[in-house]
């Protein structure tokens, strides 16, 4: 499963950079392990979105493909309810960004 996700992640990185002369920022990955910082992952992902001019509707699909191990398993259990990145006026349980923070933020 991890190998498949890494292949998809690599393909997404190529797609992000395909229309540009060069890739500006590399997509981060998040496994959900206790030693990882979800806030840092979200922060870096938002920078990649901005630097590569990622449109809102694509952020969700890129975000889920940056998840591996425990985080990917969490998403597989919640894929029917988490359906967008962070769309305004959508119920909180449907937003990937906020749901990841709620599940994996060890500080909150």
Question: How would you describe this structure to a colleague?
Answer:
- This protein is mostly helical.
- The chain starts with a helix and ends with a helix.
- It has 5 helices and no strands.
- The mean pLDDT is 81.
- The protein has one domain.
Count of discrete alpha- or pi-helical segments spanning 4 or more residues? 5
Please provide the count of β strands: 0
Major β-sheet annotation? none
Integer count of domains: 1
State the helicity in percent bands: 40-55%
Question: Low-confidence runs (pLDDT<50, min 5 residues)?
Answer: none
Range of strand content: under 5%
User: Which shape, going by the Cα principal axes?
Assistant: globular
List the helices and strands and how they pair.
Layout lengths: L1 H17 L19 H14 L4 H9 L4 H10 L17 H9 L4
List the defining traits of the structure above:
globular; about 110 residues; 5 helices; about 55% helix; mainly alpha
Quick summary:
The chain is mainly α. The protein has one domain (2-13, 30-104). It is built from 5 helices and no strands.
